[in-house]
Amino acid sequence: MSSKHPRTHPLVEVRGVEKVYPGGAKVAAVRGVDLDIARGEFTALAGPSGSGKSTLLNLIGTLDRPTKGDILHDGRLVTKLDADQLSDFRLGALGFVFQAYNLIAVLTAVENVEYPLILRGMGAQERRAQALQALKWVGLEGCADRRPDLLSGGQQQRVAVARAIVHRPALVLADEPTANLDSKTGGALLDLMQSLNAEHGVTFLFSSHDPAVLSRARRVVRLQDGELRGEDRR
Question: Which residues contact 120 (CB under 8 A, 6 or more apart)?
Fold first, then answer.
């Protein structure tokens, strides 16, 4: 789309998406979901265990493919991309924060944050500068040379957030990001994410059943048995 014309479509468009896992019962984890996510949202997918919220997050994040339906990111139909195209798309447009942190144990904090930039082929000097800036955003500039085993759980999750935002993605997807944190540390992480959303325009989409996350979200989309069952906006 030409830069002369503003983008009027949502950042994410989910259209009639279903996900059926093979097997004797052929369980439908997601059933006929339609959902739009606008730029700048701070939104949570909520529901009990087995509701389909993590599956939907993974589908939106292109970590899994829908059985039926389409997903568009910034107007681009991503459900038709091949594996290499999807990998390139994720490296450029998406950031991921997982409850298990998924840091590389033998790398320092700054090296973990640099890793997506290495995959994108960025030069050493530029990627180190961007990684240090991302660590500064999350308040860990003093921990750049520490490996994950020398960081607290909250610090490790902050490194994971820095890694997710270092390449300035359009969307950060966070799957139960507070699940392994105590309430104080989880609250501090949510403060950080709200600040990144407000000050840097980072769009966040969470999958969570944590009341602390749901109370912070400006929009809560509720799922049950793989179907959308309404939403709340603040």
Answer: 91, 92, 167
Q: Which two tokens stand for residue 112?
A: 């973990």
Distance CA 70, CA 17 (A): 6
Q: pLDDT grade, residue 225 (50/70/90)? A: very high
Burial of 1 (0-12, 13-18, 19+ CB in 10 A): exposed
Quick one: DSSP state of residue 78?
G
Place of tokens 């909520």: 46
The answer on pLDDT for 45 being more than 90 is yes
pTM of the model: 0.90
pLDDT tens digits, 8-41: 789 999 999 999 988 766 778 999 999 999 999 9
Options 3.90.226.10, 3.40.50.2300, 3.30.70.100, 3.40.50.300; CATH of 39-65+80-233: 3.40.50.300
Domain ranges of the chain: 39-65+80-233
The mean pLDDT value for 42-66 works out to 95
Asked if 62 and 7 touch (Cβ cutoff 8 Å), the reply is no
